[in-house]
Design a protein that fits this description.
The complex is a heterodimer of chains A (about 110) and B (about 130).
Chain A (H helix, E strand, L loop, with lengths): L2 H30 L3 H26 L4 H40 L1
Helix pairs in contact in A: 1-2, 2-3
Chain B lengths: L1 H25 L3 H27 L2 H31 L32 H5 L2
Helix pairs in contact in B: 1-2, 2-3
Classes of the chains: A mainly alpha (about 110), B mainly alpha (about 130).
Chain lengths: ~110, ~130
């Protein structure tokens, strides 16, 4: 085993550990986030980090097909983030309208 | 040579991703946290995908890597804009040191052009 292989293996393992720690920290924000918008942001960050994790894992296992998984995961994660953000906005609007109508009828 | 470039890009991407999630945990306010998550997170994931393209170093993988990086760079601002708008319009509490709020009166649902719900505008359905 030559020098470059050792360097690459160490770098890949360090990157995987950093990404897993990052996902763990984002999970803490997902749990404690005071607003639903905080949780949506944390989910968005987790999905971006999982795309990076898939790419790093494709280097670690020397398997090219993990990149296809990363493409599909990025697509689905974007759609999920958009849907959750629109849901949050609609919820806020409904709540606001409800308050306004109650103020009128007071 | 390729292995050294791959290792450098991998470590840079991992550090940027870790900084993004550190900011996610430590920053004081939803909108500031969204700033950390989208920019640093997209940069970290993009660097790791570039590292993966350097590692395999063939045409098909490189083209797919370019597609993924382009897709991430296109969708991260859109997602950030949507989350930021939803967070601001649901009147999330801003940081206490926020001293300028230029959108202060724009996010009122009673302003008609801000109303994006199609069901509440019957005249637009008549004009079709």
């Amino acid at each position: 085993m030559n020098m470059e292989n050792v360097l690459l293996k160490a770098a890949t393992e360090l990157t995987l550990v950093l990404l897993m720690l990052g996902i763990l920290l984002a999970f803490i924000r997902l749990l404690i986030g005071p607003d639903p918008a905080d949780r949506i942001v944390a989910l968005d960050l987790i999905s971006i980090l999982i795309v990076g994790l898939l790419a790093a894992f494709s280097v670690y296992t020397d398997e090219k097909s993990f990149l296809d998984v990363a493409i599909a995961y990025a697509l689905i994660a974007f759609l999920g983030t958009v849907a959750l953000a629109r849901y949050r906005e609609r919820l806020a609007k409904k709540h606001d309208r409800f308050k306004t109508i109650k103020d009128i009828h007071k | 040579m390729n292995d050294i470039v791959t290792a450098l890009f991998l470590i840079a991407g991992g550090i940027f991703s870790f900084i993004a999630s550190l900011g996610m945990l430590r920053l004081p306010d939803t909108i500031i946290r969204m700033h950390a998550a989208t920019k640093a997170g997209a940069l970290g994931a993009g660097l790791i995908i570039v590292a993966q393209a350097f590692y395999h170093f063939e045409l098909a993988t490189t083209l797919r890597s370019i597609a993924v990086v382009t897709f991430i760079l296109l969708t991260a601002p859109v997602a950030a804009h949507l989350i930021g708008r939803a967070a601001y319009c649901s009147k999330v509490t801003l940081w206490k040191k926020t001293w300028i709020d230029e959108l202060a009166n724009t996010c009122d649902w009673r302003i008609p052009e801000f109303d994006t719900d199609e069901n509440s505008k019957p005249e637009s359905q008549d004009s079709k």
